[in-house]
Amino acid sequence: MDRSALLEAVAGDLFTYVLNGRFPEDDISGLIKPAELPDAYEDYDRLVTLHFLLEEAVDKFVAELPGMLRTIKTETKTESSVQRGGIDGRIDWEATYQTRASSSPGDRSVYVVNSQTEQYAIPENIVLKALVETVNQGISDVDQYLNANRTWVKDSWLGNDERRERFQTTLERNVHLQRTPDPEPIEPTARMITRATQSRKRLYQRAGELYSQYASYHDSPEAVRSLLEETTITPSDEQKLFELFVLFSVITSLREADSPAIGTPTYHTLRSGRDAAATFDGDRQLRVFYDSVPDDPDIEFRNVPGPRPSRADIVHETSREVVDAFFTQTNTRAHTKRPDVMVVADDDQAAAESYLLVEVKHSQNSQTIRQGVTELLEYLTFVREGTDYEFEKGDFGTGLNGLLVIQDIEGDDIVPASLAEQERQDLPVRVVQASELQAAISRVLRREIFGYE
User: Fold this and answer.
1) pLDDT in single tens digits along all 453 residues of the chain
2) Where are any strands of DSSP class E within 104-173?
3) Chain centroid to CA 375
4) Fewest C-beta atoms under 10 Å: which of 31, 61, 211, 364?
5) Which DSSP symbol is given to 297?
6) Are 63 and 163 in contact (CB under 8 A)?
7) How many alpha carbons lie under 13 Å from residue 90 in its C-beta half-sphere?
8) What is the SS3 assignment for 139?
9) Max Cα-Cα span within the chain
C-alpha cells in the first residue's frame, strides 16, 4: 500500500469516525500533529488552521493583500433624518412639507435631510474579514513556536518576520478592514461565500475560495486527505498513520459484520489511557483497544518468573513489587509493551476465542518483521487476567489470535506466503500484508468470534 493509498484510506476513516462525531476530534489531532508542536495543537480546529496557513495559496494571498485592498467595494446607503436649523445633507422637500404639516405646523426651521453613507457590511467584505481574521488568529496562536530551526517554519511564509508584520499592520491600519464589521457567529454563510467566489474582483474571488477551502476541512474526506497530504507539516510518522489504518479496518470489519455476536458499536476517546476505543453490545461483549490495555478486567502483559528464578529475576521482580506498592494508581504501574490493537471478548469462552492481538509494522524489512513476530509471541505468552496466564505455556492460540500487519512486499525476488499457506504450515501467528488485512480480519471473525470453520 503506497503512501497515496494509505492517506486516502486514513482520510476516509478520519472523516467517518471523527468528523461525523464518533471519536472526539481532539483525540485524532493529537495523534497526527507533528511531535515538535505543543499539546495546544491537539485541538483539531487549531491544527487545521495551522495547516491552512501553510498552504501556498494562503502565502500568495497574504503577499498580494495590501495591493488588492485598493479595489474593495462598498454600497451607498441613503438615510433620512429630521433636522432643525443647520442642515447636513440634501433636503428632501416633499418629505419636509409632509413633516411640517403633520408634526410641526408653521415651523419653517424643520427639514427632512437625506445623507449618504458608505456601507462596508456587504457579503463579500464579511467573507474577506472572516478570512483575514482566521489567518491573523492562526499567526497569533503559532507565533511563540516560530523557531527558525523548525523545517516547516523555514520553508513557509510564517518564518518571514517581515511578511507576518506587514500582514498584521495591514489588518490593524487599513481603513477598509477597520470599517468592515466583524462577522456574526453564524457568518460567513454559504450564500456569502458563494457571492464572494463569483465576484468579478480578484480580491473577493480569492477570499471566497480560500475560506471555502478552510471550511471544507470539516465537510469531506477529500479535504481531510488534502490536509494530510498537501501541507508542509504532513505527518512524517507514517507508522502512526499505518496504525490508524489498521485500527479503523478492525473496527469497520466488526461494525459491518451485522451479527448478534457483535452487536452495535459505541465509540470512545482514543486518549483516555486504558479505556476501550470501541465497545460492541452483542453476545460476545467485544472491546477494541488502541495502544492501551484494559483496566477492567485487569489484563496485562507481564512476565512473572517461574518457580526457580535467577538472581536477576528476583531483583527485577522485587523492584517491580516495590514500585507497584509505591504507586497505588493502576495507570502508573509498570507494564510491558502492548499490542497496537487488541480485541477482547468479555464472555466465558476459551482464550483462543476471546483475544485478537494485532501488531503493526510499517515496514517490509525482514528484521523488523521478525521483531514484530517476536513481540506478538511475547504478548500471547504473557497476556494475563489477574494472576493467571490466558494461554498455556507454549500455546499461542489457533494461529489467528495474533496478527502482524506489515506493508505490502513488492518485487519479483520475494514471494511471501499467503494466509492459506501460513495456515497449512500451522504457524502460531499470521503475518498479514496491508492489502490482505480486510480478508484476514474477516477470517478471524469467522473463526474466533463466530466459531465457524
Assistant:
1) 777 777 777 766 765 655 444 555 555 555 555 555 556 555 667 767 777 888 889 999 999 999 999 989 887 776 777 888 777 778 888 888 888 888 888 788 888 888 767 788 899 999 999 999 999 998 887 777 676 666 667 777 888 888 889 999 999 999 999 999 999 999 999 999 999 999 999 999 999 999 998 888 766 666 666 666 654 344 456 777 788 889 888 988 888 887 888 888 887 766 545 578 888 998 889 999 887 655 554 677 766 555 555 555 555 556 555 555 434 444 333 334 678 899 998 888 888 888 899 999 988 888 888 888 888 888 888 888 777 888 888 888 888 889 999 998 876 666 788 888 888 888 888 898 988 888 888 888 777 666 655
2) 110-119
3) 29
4) 364
5) T
6) yes
7) 8
8) helix
9) 118
**One-letter identity of residue 143:** D
Q: Taking Cα atoms as reference points, which of 124, 129, 261 lies closest to residue 193?
A: 124
At residue 192, φ and ψ (nearest 5 deg) are -65, -45
Strands 286-290 and 278-280: antiparallel
Contact (CB, 8 A) for 275 and 268: yes
Cβ-count burial 79-88 (b if 16+ within 10 Å, e if not): eeeebeeeee
Give CA–CA dist 384/5, Å, rounded.
37
**Cβ atoms of residues 31 and 240 within 8 Å:** yes
Of 355, 403, 396, nearest to 377 by C-alpha is 396
> Number of C-alpha atoms within 13 angstroms, CB side, residue 111?
15
Q: Can you tell me the distance from the alpha carbon of 210 to that of 187, in angstroms, rounded to the nearest whole number?
A: 15
The C-alpha cell that represents 223 in the structure block: 479535504
DSSP class of residue 112? E
Degrees (nearest 5) of the Cα angle 353, 436, 1? 135
Residue 273 in grid coordinates: 489511557
Q: Within 10 A of 373 (CB to CB), how many other CB atoms are there? A: 19
Grid cell for residue 243: 496504525
d(CA 169, CA 35): 32
Q: How many residues does the chain have?
A: 453
Contact assessment for residue 137 and residue 49, using Cβ atoms and an 8 Å cutoff: yes
Q: Where are the domains of the chain?
A: 33-70+123-234, 75-119, 239-449
> How many beta carbons lie within 10 A of that of residue 53, not counting itself?
23
C-alpha cell at 159: 518564518
- 3-state SS class at 134: helix
User: Reduced to 3 states, what is the DSSP secondary structure of residue 433?
Assistant: strand
Alpha-carbon distance of 2 to 356, in angstroms, equals 26
